[in-house]
Write a structure and sequence with these properties.
252 residues; mainly beta; eight-stranded antiparallel sheet; seven-stranded antiparallel sheet; 2 helices; 6% helix
Length: 252
């Protein structure tokens, strides 16, 4: 298994990616190189949490932004959709990501994506401060679909099912236009209202007021400071949902 970063990835034709290996003297590229583990994510990714760490261990941010999450009252490590995941009991556990460097204070555009396997609907997937206050956004599994609240709340147009993995996505231009995605496809639009920058912490699996606990599994939480295209979101879903049918491996 390998993560790769390429200059372009076509959505109309196959993209060939070549892997070089077998050089025992090869070293990790420098941190300021254009490639290597320090440059897996483009600069718009502000937080990526694989949630694959052992129970009780801090949840690393895979980007260079250092937005490390701290698990509270659990949650427990389990098998996820993409590697490991965290299981939330819906009672008192969550992950707290402090706002230490302002990289999650996004005002120019926003994309959130999360894999969730809900035991029941209604809990928070992600929240940065309580909705209705400046600089905050909240994303949850309200009813059977998704809901995004800033100064207003909007719902996705159709729902998902409990007990199975669903890929939730949301994009927002920072002013009026919000768009939902469910399992790679557009699933509703609306106006969640505007927001401004704040220094509130980001919570995964709960809200910041002690309620809204999520009951189920969460995996691969990603936050970007740009509006990802419909093609981008569909590709992420297809790649993560079934890698073996998304790409073809050829050996020479």
């Amino acid at each position: 298994m390998a993560w790769v970063k390429v200059p372009t990835l076509s959505y109309t034709e196959d993209t060939d990616i070549y892997m070089y290996y077998g050089n025992t003297s090869a070293a990790e590229p420098a941190a300021d190189s254009t490639y290597g583990s320090q440059n897996v994510w483009d600069s718009n990714f502000k937080g990526v949490w694989h949630l694959r760490e052992s129970t009780g261990v801090n949840n690393d941010d895979s980007t260079n932004n250092g937005n490390t999450g701290t698990p509270t009252n659990g949650p427990t490590q389990t098998t996820g959709k993409v590697g490991g995941a965290l299981s939330f009991d819906g009672t008192n556990d969550y992950v707290n990501v402090p706002d230490t460097n302002n990289t999650l204070d996004i005002s120019s555009g926003l994309t959130i994506s999360i894999w969730a396997k809900a035991n029941s609907f209604g809990g928070r997937l992600l929240e940065k401060g309580p909705p209705g206050a400046p600089g905050n956004y909240m994303f949850d599994t309200y009813a059977t679909g998704g809901r995004l609240c800033i100064s207003n709340c909007i719902n996705s147009s159709s729902g998902a099912s409990t007990g199975v993995w669903n890929y939730y996505g949301f994009t927002f231009n920072g002013v009026t236009a919000g768009k939902f995605y469910l399992n790679g496809s557009a699933n509703g639009t609306g106006n969640p209202g505007g927001y401004t920058v704040s220094n509130r912490a980001l919570f995964i699996g709960a809200d910041t007021n002690g309620g809204g606990r999520f009951n189920g599994l969460l995996d691969e939480v990603r936050v970007s400071s740009t509006i990802r295209s419909a093609g981008w979101i569909a590709t992420e879903y297809a790649n993560q949902n079934s890698p073996s049918t998304f790409y073809i491996e050829s050996k020479f």
